[in-house]
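User: Here's a protein and a ligand (zinc ion). What would the complex look like?
Assistant: Let me lay out the input and then the predicted complex.
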Amino acid sequence: MRALPATVLAVCGLIASACGGTGTGGAAAGQAAPATTAGQAPAATQAKDAPPEAKDAPPEAKPLDGKVVVIDPGHNGGNYRAPKEINRKVNVLTQMKACDTTGTSTNDGYSEAAFTWDVSKRLQKILKKRGATVKLTRSSNDGVGPCITERAAIGNKAEADAAISVHADGSAPANRGFHVIMPKKINGPVDKVVDDSSSLGVAVRDAFRRGTGLPYSTYIGRKALDYRSDLGGLNLSTVPKIFVEAGNMRNATEAAKFRDPKFRQKIAVALANGLQHYLQA
Ligand SMILES: [Zn+2]
């Protein structure tokens, strides 16, 4: 991470006056600026940089202004109704794979699709408030698909600065914790974003741990970081992209947390913080 330029940029983004040169004399500048500054050396430069009138000032700058984020809520609530469509094989470059799956659920029937949809909507709201343009890969939780190939294509088409696929795992009941999955080089289009995806993954891992208090996965990856070359959503991405597996829905402790809207909000805030950290680095 380059600490210095990032900090400077962040300050510019947050406080326009710190970088835009509108600093002092804002109110008076409209009338008397040329006269009062005339004594200083490069008069031409001063005039060019003169601030616009106060009433034309842009709205307050937000930390993610100009950034595009694509959120992919894993699976879809209607997938179980359309096995033929969902099981259709698609090419994910390293293998042929099902178009999508139904996802898992807690033991008492709270589906992964409902969970990922809720967290993604919350995350969208937070990121928009911070200035980002946000696109989701599906528009409801009662539809079917889209295929994993299409989920990747949506991020690519949006030329997202970052893309995140939200999931939760369905592992053995004693297994605990969250993990982040990042792409590997596969001699394919994803290769050029593998390094950025890795940075994104670490930023989200750190923010998720801090924000949710959930442990690193006890059963996958190292320190909650995993790298895979079998996921279409990653292999086909040409923008920095990760998957987050928020925890194990088959573990009673984590299932109870996932059912709690306040905890889902905590997850969404943590993901937003991780994304923001990456996007401002
Ligand atoms: Zn999933």
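Summary: Residues 3-56 form one domain.
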